[in-house]
Amino acid sequence: MSGRSGDGEGSAVIVRMWEVRAHPEGFDDLLSWVCEAAVPEFEAHPMHVGTEVFSSTDGRIVMISKWRNTPAALPEPPGHLVARKAHSWDFTPVDR
C-alpha cells in the first residue's frame, strides 16, 4: 500500500494546508485578502480542484486546497497584517 490514492502518476490528490496568524487589528483585512486576492489567484489553475477557508477565534486563518498535482505557491500575505509568518504543509490521502 503506497499511502496515496490513484493508480498513476499525477492521479494522486495533494491537499495543501496553509495557515497564517493575523495581527488582531488586521484580521478582517487579512481574511479579505485571502478570500478576494490569494484564492482567486490560483482558482483558475488547471490542477486546482477546490479550496476552503477557515478562521479561528484566536486570529488564525487556514486554507485547505486540493490539487491534481503539485500545488501552486501562494503569494505572501501583506506583512503589516500578519502576526506570524504563513506556513504550509502538503498531504496525500491515505488508503485505509
UniProtKB/TrEMBL annotation:
Superkingdom in the source lineage: Bacteria
Name this polypeptide is given: ABM domain-containing protein
Lineage: Bacteria, Bacillati, Actinomycetota, Actinomycetes, Micromonosporales
